[in-house]
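Bug report

Summary: structure tokens for Zinc finger BED domain-containing protein 1-like differ between web form and batch submission.
Environment: batch mode, default settings.
Steps: 1) Submit the sequence below via batch. 2) Compare with the web form result.

Sequence submitted:
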Amino acid sequence: MDTEPKEVVGPLDGKCEFKKNKDGTLNKQAVICTLCKKEFSFHRSTSSLKYHINAKHAFVGSSSSGARPGGLVQTTLTEGRALSKSISENLTQKIAKWIAKDCRPINIVEDKGLAEVLQVASRDAFYKPPSRGTVMTKIHDLYKTEKKKKEEDLAVADYVALTGDHWTSVSNNNYLGVTAHHITKTWELKSFALTTMKTEERHFAEACAEQFLTVARKWEIEGKVTTIGTDSARNMIAAARLLTFEHMPCIAHILQRSITVSLSDSGFVHALSKSRKIVGHFKHSPANTAELQAQQAALGQKQEPLVQDVPTRWNSTVDMVKRLNRNQAAIKATLDQQQHKLIMLTPPEWDKVQRLETLLEPCRYVTEILGGEAYVSCSVVLPALCHLRRVMEVSDEDPAYVVRFKTAFKEDLASRQEKSNNAWLKLATALDPRFKDLKTLPKSEREEVWTTLGGMLHEQSPRRSPQTSEDGPPKKKMSLLLQMCSDSDSDEEVQPGRDIHRYRAEPCISMEDCPLQWWSAHSGAHDKLALLARKYLATPASTVPCERLFSVAGHIVQKKRSALLSENVNQLVCLSNWLKEE
């Protein structure tokens, strides 16, 4: 028996070998599969041999029975069988969608760890992760597909409200973010991003106005835009005057600005200054933080870090004082065991901090309500501000510094509210079945709102034609004849009043109920008012939707990704916003 080892083919060691001639020499032009003894022609290429091994012997593993004479061991292919083209394509598409949706870096497809995970998930079948170029191609295609869906949504919308703001990336590039908001025929509130567009010009009013118009024209909604929401910066206010759209200043910005002004003109300044230094003492030292957590555990409290307030971060001041008040005992116990140069809060100052939490908590609640985009917020503005005015009423038990804060807050908020779009807010409140009693308005202003709505209904009412059809059915002819004999002008004037009266006669719904669900059930009975409700209730009360866009953009344009093209930034930010709606 011949035990001499035969020369095997390079990349298929143990699987195929050269054919042996009768004289004992090797035939370099023919190979034999060692598993099934099938013969193949060989011309320095092993592709046909690999195909045969994958197709016929994919599941053959190494074992003791597979040992070759002379110590050669028969091994399996490391790659295994390839996934089908459809499965591979679907997996690549899902990877691209995952990267766009969750703001993952494109080069994550080059990670060896991801390749190992995909190999395990593919159940021993071979799948090579796509290249960066392939992922970007898939993302571009996905953006076109999702954008077409949004264009179709906007094409059937009657009215569209916009919000816009500017943002500067870590690479010092300026971007304009714009979001769209509208109510569908089925009474669903839709909110999504339109663009995160790179801007080169200075933010003068004319440039800002032109940028908003460019976005509206690009999406073919220039004739449908009702309002544009921005912050209260001077250039934005001036830009809004140049546009034909209604301007809706961000109520959340207004509220936070009033809080800042009131705090600077009250007796809380020194207490807040000491509080910030105490928080910084623990935030800047891991050892101090560990000692504070030990005291929290000893007192049976939740181990939580202190929070430092930031001037540009809404509600950060109330978050700071809430943490201080909750951990007052732990903070005192920790600092008593340390040598430090901090000036501790005195008992009266601790009382100030507690009172400040009580004052700012309603403001935090209102800011969070007005910052929502998944529900109607524009009609909540006037009731929410009315609630704040009642909370800030001065009482006999208030110390002098609290009186100063409440007085300054109400005066500053009232002056800023006068500059907002109160006419739009009043109509939105009247069209919300939760607040249509208008109790948040003075009695002298309520009838004026209903008169304005009646005038709008009168403009919508089509005038009846005196002409009749000769070949119409007898009942229709009689009806048209009676209409001709009646005082049609008088009917047209009375009808809007009847519509308003029937709507006002409807009972108000609960605060927890959704106004859009109410309109979905009653739009048939109030069809003309329903059209106005779609127009006014779609407007957001703040520019928080744009702020959320910039938070997403900050995750995408990082220091390691600061060289991203502006086109890719726009597509990645928009896709992340659109795909999360699913």
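Above is the batch result. After comparison, the two runs are identical; trailing whitespace caused the diff. The radius of gyration is 36 Å. The longest strand covers residues 189-199.
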